[in-house]
Inverse folding.
């Protein structure tokens, strides 16, 4: 069975307001602690009883965490804060719908993640392209000269992929 629904502007505003609160929390918190909290939340969520759609969106949290922890990607601070804001919302078990409620408890988290994933599709596509480029480069060479060239190529590709994001978001 397929069920679809539309969010009214007022509903979207509620989610945007909750995300704004999460952004405020990001400004005053340690990034490592926020990521650890999101990991902890992933480990404790009742995903086994959540609908498949919810599980799919929650699974994207791992992708967001991997992007933040990827030292070679080195995402600029302003872009990092957007992703961290989603993790803050996700990690709060008492958000709009308490996570412990069977079946529907994670629905608001899935909606928030869907909204963020749509907003950040260019960022996620850039990260995927970066990962593909890195795979094509092969493993980090042992030889210092080749290592320097490898790192320079990776840096150049990262800058090429992030530049349009900075421009479009006026960062």
């Amino acid at each position: 069975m397929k069920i679809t629904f539309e969010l009214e502007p007022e509903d979207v505003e509620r989610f945007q307001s909750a995300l704004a609160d999460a952004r405020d929390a990001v400004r005053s918190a340690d990034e490592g602690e926020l990521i650890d909290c999101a990991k902890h939340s992933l480990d404790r969520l009742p995903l086994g009883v959540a609908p498949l759609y919810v599980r799919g969106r929650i699974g994207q949290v791992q992708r967001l965490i991997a992007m933040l922890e990827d030292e070679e990607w080195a995402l600029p601070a302003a872009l990092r804060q957007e992703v961290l804001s989603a993790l803050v919302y996700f990690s709060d078990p008492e958000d709009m719908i308490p996570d412990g409620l069977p079946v529907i408890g994670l629905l608001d988290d899935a909606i928030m993640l869907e909204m963020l994933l749509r907003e950040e599709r260019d960022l996620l596509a850039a990260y995927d392209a970066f990962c593909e480029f890195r795979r094509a480069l092969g493993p980090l060479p042992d030889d210092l000269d080749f290592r320097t060239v490898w790192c320079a190529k990776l840096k150049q590709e990262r800058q090429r992929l992030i530049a349009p994001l900075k421009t479009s978001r006026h960062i």
User: Anything to note?
Assistant: The radius of gyration is 18 Å. The chain has a mean pLDDT of 87. Helices lie at 9-27, 31-44, 52-69, 77-91, 107-119, 121-137, 144-168. The longest helix spans residues 144-168.
